[in-house]
Specification:
Elements: H1 2-6, H2 8-22, H3 30-42, H4 47-64, H5 72-83, E1 104-109, H6 116-129, E2 134-139, H7 144-157, E3 161-162, H8 170-184, E4 188-193, H9 200-214, E5 224-230, H10 235-247, E6 252-256, H11 266-274, E7 278-282, E8 290-292, H12 295-303
Parallel strand pairs: 1-4, 1-5, 2-3, 2-4, 5-6, 6-7
Antiparallel strand pairs: 7-8
The structure holds guanosine-5'-diphosphate.
């Protein structure tokens, strides 16, 4: 039910508009489809993904000849879930990490302010609660505040943080973190990195250096490069996804601040457009306000 509460604004807005759009209509016709298109775009699903969804529904209308508006909810659920099929299986339920990699190394990327530190803290807390030993690394050495904030989270959660002074080499921090994690026989390492986008070449070089140096300790690290995006920023989030995926290989997404926005549809659009699984969603500032993303629960929460 945290998910329902976290997505309240999106849900109310989406469902409210949809209800209005089909009021007094028994059949899905062009007008209903036009309205639906507008609703999806205004929920920040994105134009390309919206068009795909509408086309899928048009196909259903054509096949069934008559499609009642009463069935529209179910059909939307089916079609949106199907669209997310390639990136998210729908079986995701718990906070867990793949077996066979120890330590499992997650490198977290994203621009400042999106909720990167908070997401790392929440994730560390959930993984610890699930029984994993976690080590954090403060490789965002560009801002003193980033290191301090991460320390606050590490203390709150009760996990070790490896850090150096502000301005030190991020790759060196990453190296120390992995070395320490290996020595402690830790299960998971979560490494924070700086997210300056102003210079793509710098970003690319910095991230590849961090990766390269990590591999001196754990040869196939990082196992996951997780991009954190602020879900309330709509098209900016799309833009950041574009830039980061161009700079490095992003393997998962965390979308934050969905509690503060009516535009939660951004999750559907980004996951479809970039074909990267959404792993977690942030639905509040508290330590427990991180959810494992499950497409069925997510889509269902729109219609409940
Ligand atoms: P960073 O600069 O990317 O590390 O961002 P922070 O983790 O410091 O977060 C920036 C602000 O966003 C803080 O005030 C967080 O409490 C807030 N924040 C992070 N995630 C969420 C979320 O899921 N929901 C809400 N409402 N706020 C969040």
């Amino acid at each position: 039910e945290t998910l329902d509460k976290g997505l309240e604004k999106t849900k109310t807005s989406f469902f409210g508009k949809l209800t209005k759009a089909i009021a007094g209509k028994s059949k899905v016709d062009d007008e209903v489809l036009d309205n639906l298109e507008e609703i999806l775009i205004s929920s920040d699903v994105g134009v390309n993904t919206t068009i795909k969804i509408i086309e899928r529904i048009e196909k259903r209308v054509a096949a069934d000849k008559y499609l009642g508006t009463a069935e529209l909810n179910q059909i939307l659920r089916d079609e949106i879930s199907a669209l997310l099929a390639e990136t998210n299986s729908g079986n995701e339920t718990d906070f867990s990490i793949p077996t066979g990699k120890k330590p499992y190394v997650i490198m977290v990327v994203g621009v400042n302010g999106v909720g990167k530190t908070t997401t790392i803290g929440k994730l560390a807390s959930q993984l610890k609660a699930a029984g994993y030993s976690v080590v954090l690394g403060a490789a965002d050495t560009f801002r003193a505040a980033a290191i301090d904030q991460l320390q606050i989270w590490a203390d709150r959660v009760g996990v070790p943080l490896v850090k150096q002074n502000m301005g030190s080499d991020p790759a060196s921090v990453a190296f120390d973190t992995l070395t320490s994690a290996v020595a402690q026989n830790a299960d998971v390492v979560i490494i924070d990195t700086a997210g300056r986008l102003h210079n793509k070449v710098n970003l690319m070089n910095e991230l590849s250096k961090v990766k390269r140096v990590m591999q001196k300790v754990v040869s196939d690290a990082p196992h996951d490069v997780m991009l954190v995006l602020d879900g309330s920023t709509g098209q900016n989030a799309f833009e950041q996804a574009k830039q980061f995926t161009a700079a490095t290989e992003v393997t998962s997404l965390a979308v934050t601040k969905l509690d503060g926005t009516a535009k939660g549809g951004v999750v559907i659009g980004i996951s479809d457009q970039f074909q990267i699984p959404v792993r977690y969603i942030g639905v509040g500032e508290g330590i427990n306000d991180l959810q494992v993303f499950n497409k069925f629960e997510f889509v269902d929460s729109f219609f409940k």
